[in-house]
Amino acid sequence: QTCALPISDEYAAAPELFANDAPATGPLWLGSPNNAFIACSGDTSNQLLYGESSKKIPSQITQLAHYEVAHGDPGLITVTVGGNDLGFVDVLLDCFLSIVGTPVSCIGELHDKISYIESGAFTSVLETTYKAIKAQAGDAEVVAVGYPFLFPTASLSHENAANARCPWLAGDAYQALPQFENAQLDIDEVMREAASEARDRKS
Description:
Helices cover 49% and strands 7% of the residues. By secondary structure, it is mostly helical.
């Protein structure tokens, strides 16, 4: 089938779980009767796999199974997950709401997230998630999709522009931009590693 399903978690809920020939935003490609958008903003990997029984919210895996019963295996499933597990949305809010000072108060928190990602502990969390999705995916191709860059790469011109346009940076873009860039690169690299492990290892 030429349909797409998005599965995902949080601030990238658009590219989450998609099917063939689908642009990177769910509502734009839902015109096909066999397309479905099951990505859920706010989901952690655990919620993606198991849902929230207390709120009677089925997991995205369960929704995928229901889709397959109704329509058969999708052609392509795209997956974006991990940001909510790491609490990146909270870090961004902390940065934005931080009291003006030097350095930006959230930089230490962001550095802790980077250290955790680089420790290797998070790779197994993503691998488990990818393997569960693949096990339910039937003959569909499953593709792990990285997160969009929310901030410009570090450079003098970008730092000057960020300081001018983002008062919450308190003039510390030279510290903040490299940290955000490193976190973005690290999580995308961990996603690649986990996807490779999930593909190559048998359950």
